[in-house]
Specification:
Elements (H helix, E strand, L loop, with lengths): L2 E3 L5 E3 L2 H19 L1 E2 L15 E2 L9 E3 L10 E6 L11 H14 L4 E7 L3 H13 L2 E7 L12 H8 L3 E5 L5 H20 L3 E3 L11 H12 L2 H4 L2 E6 L3 H13 L4 E6 L4 H15 L7 H4 L1 E3 L12 H14 L8 H14 L8 E6 L11 H5 L21
Parallel strand pairs: 6-14, 7-8, 7-10, 8-9, 11-12, 11-14, 12-13
Antiparallel strand pairs: 1-2, 3-4, 5-6
Helix pairs in contact: 2-3, 2-6, 3-4, 6-8, 8-9
The structure holds pyridoxal-5'-phosphate.
Length: 398
Amino acid sequence: MNVIRFGRIGLIKRNATHTKNIHRLLFNMASREILKPYEPPAWAKHLKYLPTKRVSLACSNTPIHEWNLPGIPSDFSVSIKRDDLTGSTLSGNKVRKLEFLFADAIQKGCKHVITCGGIQSNHCRAVAVAARQLGLQPHLLLRGDLTDAGELGCEGNVLLDRLCGAHIHLVPKFSPYLTKLKPRMEKLAAKIKSETGEDTYLIPVGGSNEVGVFGYINVFQELLEQGLAERFDDLVFACGSGGTAAGLCIANFLSGTGVRCHAVKVSDSADYFHEHINQTLRDVGLDLEVKSEEIIDIVSGYKGIAYGVSTDEELGFLAEVSSTTGIMVDPVYTGKAVRGLVQELNKNPHRFKGRRVLFLHTGGIFGLFDGRMDAILKTEGSITDRIHLWPDPEGDPS
Ligand SMILES: *Cc1c(COP(=O)(O)O)cnc(C)c1O
């Protein structure tokens, strides 16, 4: 029989049950340190579901500063809240939601997490990074049209998923969440349970449910402490699965700031997002008080050809923003949202409550590294058409 030493616990005879118990003990000790108490803001205390714990993943508070965005009408001012700076590989808006989702997973004793998204999903990458930092196993269902696992490259977010050693399952591109992805996530969880005896936590697409919504309820409190209500009239952000929008507009309603929320959608339809937010209102017990349609403006018209698909003009816009302001926006979310913001300020200025706009940057930087920018930056006349070769002069002795 092997004998192993476990710190202060002393000598332990190794057999399967003992080892398992020790692992459970160490895991419980570790999770008590990871879990931090969460105190919801006073205006949120009557919600039906209230988390009591969170884990700390985001570098916060993220800064707010002025943003000299090109093409803004002169009577408007735009500032930016930098939630792209919530971390490096663990950055963007998903980290905010994961602080609550992982706390829930750890409290439930889960050792694995499963989630799903597109191949270049920022959400899946954040889950993979957070899971490894917290000692859980990440499993990702990635949607794409691959027929051979060997075709999966190392671009953008996929590089980080792979560096994290995430268990990656490639599923067909057309896989709606409820009918295809969720059943597969449940099947995989059952398989993990039967093979290891361990429990798995399922995170829905984008981390957008009644737990994840607390990410942006919590950020709203941070915004209030940063003077949102006094300094700004309108809050604008990208909307993909609706969780960020739900958290912000619910918190805005509850705290009564009078700021107007505008969600620029980059997928689905306005009806879809109102339904998602109305469902969240039911989940938190506010559906009799208010409807989504009364607390958020869903801005349509900037999705482009499709979710995740960009025209050359849209990709060119990213380079225009970065080369004039030094702030990178991503092709899938923030680039389309900022384009929507600039166009709406010009075409529909009355859509905005006032003249002081705050844009929430939700991250997505690794989407810029998926390879699509190459062609745009290499065309003649692009901003990188400023590259000069400067060889040594002929006969230079040095
Ligand atoms: C996921 C994501 C969004 C959209 O947030 P939702 O809560 O899913 O609507 C916006 N920006 C970036 C960079 C994202 O990764």
